[in-house]
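Format is chain and fold; as here:
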Amino acid sequence: NKKDSKVIYCGINSNDFKIDFIGKNKIPLILFPTFIHKAKGIYDVFEASKNLLQKGVKFKLVITGGGPEKELLEKLIKEKNLEKDIIVKANICDKDLKKLYNQCDFTLYPVLKGEFGLVLLESLLYNKPIIYRNDGAPKEIMKNFPGKISFDNVLDLEQKMRLLIENPRRRVALGRGGRNYVLKNFDVKMTAD
């Protein structure tokens, strides 16, 4: 019976996430923490980023993590001469990842098949807007968050990225409230009760 059922979400320990810096970079910094694999939407991000950079839109994209397609991704980046704008950092420690979360202007979560991703919650804990694929668990996690930015395809992702890149005030406004949203809905104290 649905009335007797309750969904219990994964929780996150919000005490591990301290806001030290609000990303206000002259050239926007986008963070994509991931496992480099096609199921994580890596090629959608590459295509959207390549298209924007070729149109003269200025930003830096940092992709953190390793994976079976890291070398192929690095090859694609090099073939298009985008090494200065799209940076892959493998084997990054938690301290450096937290620093990047603090420094970035927004994050990406383009995972296919919409798994429950802590990247969504981590981004919100840092009050960062996040562009996510409108599917599965991310759609469920973000359904009540007023600053949500979802996409359905590469062109949509490109448009949403451009919107945030070119609108610093909007980035801040969309990210605002993320931490409180996680504390209210996904903090480990809430989910463990």
In short: The longest helix spans residues 42-54. The chain has a mean pLDDT of 86. The CA atoms of residues 23 and 103 lie 5 Å apart. The radius of gyration is 16 Å.
